[in-house]
Amino acid sequence: xxxxxxxxxxxxxxxxxxxxxxxxxxxxxxxxxxxxxxxxxxxxxxxxxxxxxxxxxxxxxxxxxxxxxxxxxxxxxxxxxxxxxxxxxxxxxxxxxxxxxxxxxxxxxxxxxxxxxxxxxxxxxxxxxxxxxxxxxxxxxxxxxxxxxxxxxxxxxxxxxxxxxxxxxxxxxxxxxxxxxxxxxxxxxxxxxxxxxxxxxxxxxxxxxxxxxxxxxxxxxxxxxxxxxxxxxxxxxxxxxxxxxxxxxxxxxxxxxxxxxxxxxxx
Length: 267
Ligand SMILES: Nc1ncnc2c1ncn2[C@@H]1O[C@H](COP(=O)(O)OP(=O)(O)OP(=O)(O)O)[C@@H](O)[C@H]1O
Ligand SMILES: [Mg+2]
Prior knowledge:
Rossmann fold; 9 helices; binds adenosine-5'-triphosphate; binds magnesium ion
């Protein structure tokens, strides 16, 4: 498992991760959500050993992130594929780096490029979404036990996003542990077994279905004319509506509502 205990990280005295703890087991998908600048990328970079924590500890199956590189596949947020290679060559080179023999490396590269439906041409000529898919294929090349994906679906069209979701779910079912960040609540809801809301600290975390079922007990009544919103428990809804002297709309609260509540509207 990936385990982070009380992790702190500051840049020039500004605290970016404050006492963050979490875990990712094999066979589950964990999503981090939070506003821009909330510290997700900083946290991920510590998980894959690119940054050292100031305090606290991160381990992957008991090893330090640096020593676990061999079985952690990574797609950083702002990385670009290596220009001058074709998509399949990019994946192939990554396979060689991971110590896979040439013939197997080629077979694996072709298989992944096909599976992710990437055009096999020079990566600098690919669209943003296809570049991202090349990076994902490259991270998957040695079938790593864990995957760390920082906003893997940003820039993907709906079809590609859905395909990647299915791919990730398939990997999870094979027992891989997946840690990802996203700005898409529906993505977290669809994919993740557990969710962490991060804005410097962990504001809220839990199993996705628990967060959802807690929420479904609450409704939001919106005053159609003024836009005012009222949070109402399910048991109190009939009485509340009976007393309403305005035109209303009743909404079931979604993860998006919790997000707004815990992270704030300013994001
Ligand atoms: N190398 C660095 N030096 C100084 N400050 C940094 C550095 N990296 C990140 N920061 C700062 O740390 C804070 C958190 O940034 P981070 O990239 O971790 O957030 P994020 O949650 O990934 O945001 P986004 O959703 O936009 O990707 C920001 O205020 C950022 O400016
Ligand atoms: Mg980020």
